UniProtKB/TrEMBL annotation:
Matches recorded under PANTHER family: DOLICHYL-PHOSPHATE BETA-GLUCOSYLTRANSFERASE, GLYCOSYL TRANSFERASE
Pfam family, one: Glycos_transf_2
Domain of life where this protein originates: Bacteria
GO biological process: protein N-linked glycosylation
Positions in coiled-coil regions: none
Domain Glycosyltransferase 2-like: 4-170
Species of the source: Candidatus Giovannonibacteria bacterium RIFCSPHIGHO2_02_43_16
The name this protein goes by in its record: Glycosyltransferase 2-like domain-containing protein
Amino acid sequence: MNLSIIIPFFNEQSRFSKTVKYIRDFLDTQKFFDDIELIFVDDGSTDNTRGLIDEFAKQISIKTIAYKKNMGKGYAVRQGMMAAKSDYALFLDADMSTEPEEIEKFMAEIKKGTPVIIGSRRSKGSQVLVSQSLHRTMMGMIFTMLANLIMGMRVPDFTCGFKCFSRRILFLAKLKGLEIATVPVAWKNDSVTTVRLGRDAIESFFDLIKIRWNYVLGRYN
């Protein structure tokens, strides 16, 4: 079984060393996968993130995707997913709010062949070690509620940045009747965030509307 790990980066210079430490530790200790493909996506960083990625790529095999204009996290994740070649593709945030080792909790579903596995901070057994601010928590809950309403789904935590796919899109997987598993994970907030709460939330909301509209028009048939 092979795994691709996709990490989107935007101006992560200050904590890049933290990211690569967690990734190195995971690669040194994991025993679940025969091969791991690393995909780093530089989402138009304006600091030295790209330079740090290039330096790290001299030490370890990485597939790098980069572009000059910042397109947002969703776009960056899509680019990584489309480039992934492994049996499963996992994306996680550069701040390591959910550590790569949490993939162990996904293994039962991966071995079953479940095509969509979602980490959740709001399921029984999950651990929130360091909480977000109240307004970010509320925004996440509201977005999850709207996403479930628009998509006709029951996913308890849309915004947790720890999701694993057999390279299929979440909504399209549901349309095809594919199983979606939610797995509780340990998560800790990093107060230094590059997520633009207002802009990113609005862009994500309109992406959901676009997906639903495409479905109504029969473009996924």
